[in-house]
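Lab manual, section 2.4: Encoding a predicted structure.

Procedure: take the sequence of the chain (328 residues), apply the prediction step described in section 2.3, and record the output as structure tokens. A sample record is shown.
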Amino acid sequence: MEGVGVKALVTGAYGLLGGWLVAALLDREADVTVIRRDDTSRSALLALGLEPRVSVVHGDITADGVLARAVSEYEIDTVFHLAAQTLVPTANRSPLSTFETNMRGTWLTLEACRQNDCVQRVVVASSDKAYGPHTELPYTEAHALQPRFPYDASKAATDLIARSYWHTWRLPVAVTRFANLYGGGDFNESRLVPEAVVAALTGRAPVVRSDGSPERDFLYVEDAVAAYLAIAGALGDRDQPGPAAGEAFNAGGGQPHRVLDVVELICRLAGTGVEPDVRGKGTPAGEIDRQWVDHSKLSALTGWQPTVALEDGLGRTLAWYREHLAAQ
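Recorded output:
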């Protein structure tokens, strides 16, 4: 996609990844359309000042006709389907709304794409959570999807639904199973990194809901954006599908990190003298203890590699929040 003008639709554009992906697409001179459900006051897209530069379709992706209208009226050729309910605790409390958004939203998006010949490629966000717990790590794309909890199950279903559209109707679709994303513009403060960053910058001890021992793979948001663009470029089109069609791809930072180590690093980089407030025992209910992905499949196909190490990425994230907190 480098240097090629496209007409792209980004669902979930008001989330962390969505905002940075829109920025990258605009830098490549794409015409970008986004879906806006709620009039939220805080989002990466708004904080980055990008909304005036995109076309905004108001509606809910789970409503019949919203995606079909957007795809048709804006003559979309490339779809990045990122919209989802992404919080594990919320999924445990409200599984029905999570299933509606993550599963119904996916099949309605894909149906709109299948029925409109202008759509040439689709990238759908699954998650490393779709793998469920495994004793053998890191996850490769050959690992079974064996989710146990509502959020994980919703993403595994999303994954399977999406790839069926290639195998059945030859719509060039790929799915992403990425590690935990972080970076400036994530306003879900129940997530580890934004909560710890904001707490540390404001002189408050970051709360750790586990005992600090769970291990996670972290991927800086701009590295994630580069991976999405690489996958889209490897999808080809309906007439000449590329090698990414029907495939799933991992992407991560390259190694796992203990939650407590990450929060301690944030505290040190913030320089405000705070320390983590560890309140949990073990791993919180409904979450997986250890996760780490092998991204060699994506690297072999596209040459993609993570370029931002964790300490560097957290430093950039702290700088972003420091600037935007000061502006409030």
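Check your result against the sample. The chain is about 40% helix and 15% strand.
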